[in-house]
Write a structure and sequence with these properties.
The chain is mostly helical. The protein has a domain of 125 residues.
Amino acid sequence: MTLLSTLTNASTLFLCGLFAMAGLNKVTPANGDYYREVIHAYGVLNDSRLQQMPLLIGMLELATALSLLFPMTRYYGTLAASVLLLVYLGLILAQIARGNTGIDCGCAGSARDITISNKLVFRNLLLFLLALLCFGKNIFLEPGTVLQPLSIVLAIIMTLLYASIEQLQINAGKLVIFSNKNTQVN
């Protein structure tokens, strides 16, 4: 197995996990109000279509994750992941162009607080490039092959790195808020 196919496999597994977690967050009924507020803040839908959007987007993300797992649907899953990431990137860029950098991006769920920023543009570009890598030769689950341990280890490392960077962004945002509050008090 080549380095490229190892990276392709790891990227596929990483994106599969990312879309599965994002989809599960959105289809969980307890998170519905949060995601409706986030979608409303983006200003792209009227109220009549807003009600079911978290569920629909979550189901699309779950279908994308599932289709990334199987060789016969991986191409379509990679295509869906690429399109979703481009749509999310476009929505983030539109908010930045409007000056709406203080709104929650909805990327990390209701328990996290990540706002629209240029950092998200960079992150989504990287995720999109990873999705493009998934179009490469991917023999992870093809019949007659054995799961390659290095791909799994790399996918875990990618997931831990992603979660760490996301947490750093959240902490940096909280430090700015804390710093602004202290400045106002003094």
